[in-house]
Specification:
This protein is mostly helical. It has 2 helices and no strands. The relative contact order is 0.05.
Amino acid sequence: MLGLSELALLLIVVIVLIGAKKLPDLTRSAGKAARIFKSEAKAMKADSPPTDGTSAPRVIKAAPGDVTHKAPGSEGNQG
């Protein structure tokens, strides 16, 4: 874990490297990115189906005339 003195030293290094004029823009951009990430995560959570196992099974219906499986021995050998 970082203590208060380590965080202060890190902040000073960041200010020196980036510059005091660009720091507000950087924090503003980071805040916008965090808000966007949070809203997208919330939207994904709302769109996902429930995972508690109570959802109904998915049923796939075939159209009339669609043959996907033939019974063994029904290949036209009738005699």
